[in-house]
Each structure stands twice: as structure tokens, then as C-alpha cells.
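U., I forgot to send this yesterday:
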Amino acid sequence: MCAQAQNVEERAYYSTNANEAVGQAASITIDGEFSDWNESMIISTGGANDVATAFKGGHENCVLDIYALYAAWDDSNLYIAWQMCNTTDVWAREGDGPLSDGGRVLDVPLAVALSVNPNSVSLSGKVTDGNGIWGVGQRLQFTSHVDHLLLMSGKVGLGEPALFKAVDNAGNTNYSNGCLLFKNNGISYKMKEGFQPSHLWRQKTNASDVTVVYDSENYENLMSAEYTGKSHNTKYDSFYEIKIPLSVLGINREWLETYGIGCRVIATRGESGIDCMPHDPTVLDNVFGDYGSDSSTTHEKDDIDNFTYNLASIGHMRDIENIPTPDVPDTPDPEAPDTPETPADGNYVVYFKDNGSPVWSSVMTWIWDAGNNNKNYTGGTWPGQSMSKTTVDGTEYWKFTFTTTDNLSQPMIIFNNGNGGNGNQTADLVYENYAIYDRNGVIGYIKPNTAIDAIETASDITYNHLTVTATGDIMLYNTQGVLVAKGQNSITAPTAGLYIVVNGSTVEKAVLR
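Result:
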């Protein structure tokens, strides 16, 4: 077990769980918008222009300046957001180094460090062969306990973002059982250009002494009517939000709200960290040294950062001496099913559980292959095709199946309530076979091991909307095994949905609509 530090930076505009703020219970849509977030969800704050490169290397692009950290949760997911800012436009010109590339955060690793179970081994920041994780990590060390480390590109959509856990008693991880890819485990994140908080306190002097960042007299609020300097354009700022299923962390909502978990976001450049939230002075202890690959910029990019200050608490103020090892009821298996991307029988199955508010009374889906000229598999006319209700292990889901022999190269999916626009449809989501989705993305999987999914498809039955035609007796069962229609040669289903069709010795499943 790694001892938790008891240090919190509270000088200037730094805070960690001020007034015991631990975030709020809320369902967040990961759509790259501010609408679900508010300042009451902030669990840690800092100042702008306090990043290492503000003191040395200010000519560089990709400003990595974290300003505030947010948290929320619901029955299924943990949501974390962090505000990054690029206030160099108050002195730099459009196109100058720190404002090049639109002032954006580029393809550099961002890290979300979590402490769920302080009784577990803390991550070392290394893989088992002694190297770092994803090009960083060999120079990130954690005296403050961390047992889950999520690494992702600052440029959403690049790389293979993943969550890492320890696989040995030394706290090392690997790229097999220690590595959980976001795309296979229901983890998703987005970025929005802009600034959410109502204040933007900026350290105004790039001085030769880093202690200025701890002096509130050295800050000015760029959002204040009293600010008289060059105005700041928030188009250069970046707001990130991420969804992590609680099942991936091995906890549920009750456990989170009873004991809490710890969180820190770290911005990395080169091989090390150059800013973090909550603040830890380790990211400013070597700002004036030379970076090994470029003496014009800071040694913070390749020094060793040992994080000793407290993580921010989420859900409940943590008392790490009295947190039990999580022991919660089983949840849907977050691991991807042991089946190929393209099923041998050509049958694709997808599930949807609506955790939104208000709950949709009906659900439709729109599926296409973005890698094959956007070929559509749900009729080609928006809003797609209806999903049917089904119950698996006592939990109700919406379910949809389709069959194709195509080799899907980039399948995508949207869920909707029959309409389009905000609140009526999800974002464009990556399609994963056998996955369970909510409005934000994958939350689990139902593996194809039920009797229904084991049924082989026959070829001597024909379908025309809700009508089933075959020679002889036909029986129609719903997915709960209840006989809903019976007749000879031709029968009609009572409603659209997924059915089991029995014709003599032939049994197959079919979506009727």
C-alpha cells in the first residue's frame, strides 16, 4: 500500500475540495458541450499561466495549462471534466508559437490518475519491462496512491487511449491484462473549444521566481469588467470531458458516495508532467533547467515528477485510513466479448439502456459503415429502424439485430427517439457488436451465449414486413420465449421486434418491422 500524502495547496487561487465540494450526482452526455456542467461540480482549481512553459519555453506551441477540475456521477458512470486554457493571446500574436495550430492542445498524452482502493498496490508508472507507459510514465511517480491511470491524446481521436492497472506487487502494468482500451470498455471522451468557468485568474508575470504563482496579488481576472489589459479570446481554451463506467473501476454508486475516490489530471510534454490539477509543486520544481532535447525549453519536460500532494475527492471526502476494498454486486461484463469483429454467421446484435432524462418512450437506431461509402444497414431513411425491448438477467434493454455478409471496416451507430437534434439523439458512436450502450457510449457487453443467439439461421422462410411465410406450421415466439402467433403457411407478428421463428425442424431469429 502506498501512503496517501496529507498536503493540499491553498495559496493564491489553488484549491482542492474547497468547502468539501466533491462534485454532484448528474448524468452527463459526452458530446463536447458545457451544457451538463456547472461550477458547483468543480472539485479543484488553480491559476492560469502557472504552467512550466510560462517560465521557460513560452515560444512553444501546445500550451498545456489546466485551470479547473470537475466531477459528476450517476448509477452507471463516473464523469470527469477539466478546463485547460491558453491565455498567451494577451501578449502573443495570432500564429505565434503558442497560438499556432489554432492554439490547440496537440497529440500529447493527457493522464487521469485515480485512486479507488487505497489498500491496493499503487502504480509505478512503468510496464513490466521497465519502460514507461505510452512514451511517458517512466518519469511519473506516485507517492499519493494511484491504482487506475487513464492515458489519452490531447487531440481526440488519435492513438489508442487506454486505462492501466497494476499487474504485479511492484505496481507495474502491461499491454495485455493490465491495459483496458477505451473503445472496448465503454470509456469515451470529447473536447470543446471554449471556457466554462465565470472567472479566469491569470498569473501576470513570467518571472524568474516560480513562487509568484502562489501569490494572489500577482493575478488578474481576465473575465472581470475591471480588467484593462489585452482581451482574451476563449477560442484558444479547451474543455475536456470523459465518461468511465463504474463497473470498470469495480465500484457502484453507493460505494462511491460512501467512501469516495481520488482524482488528479496531469498534462504531459516530452517525457514528464508540466502541469496538474489538483496542483502539486513537483510540476514546477525544475522549470529553469534545460530540457535534454532542446535547451531553449524547460527541464520539467524530462525531470522526474513524484506526486505527493492529495488527489481531489469525488463523491465523498475520503478518509483513506477507513476505506474498505470494494465488494459490490456483479455488473455487466465490461470486457469485450471473445468473438471476432465480423461474426461468422453475419448476425450483428446491439443493446441500448436509456439512462437519460427524460427517458425515451421508444428507441430507434441508425447504423452505417463510414469506411464503405457510408453504406446504411437500417433502411437508409432517418431516423432508422425501431429497437425492441428485451430482458437479459432481469435487466431490460432495447435490442436490435441485423444481418450482413459485408466486412464492416468502420461501423458507426446513432440511437434516437425518432427525432433529431439535442436531447433526441446520441452523438455518432463507434459500433461494437454485442455492446450495451447508453446515450454516452458503451457501458458493457452481453456475450452471445444465450439460446437465442445460438440459433442458426435457415433459408426456407421468407419475410415481408410483419408477415412470415413458409410451408406448413409456423410458430412465432418473442425473445422471452412466449408464443405470440401460430398458423399455417403465413402468419403476422403483432408488433415490430425481434422474434424466434419455428417452422418444422427449422428455427431462426428475425427482426420484423
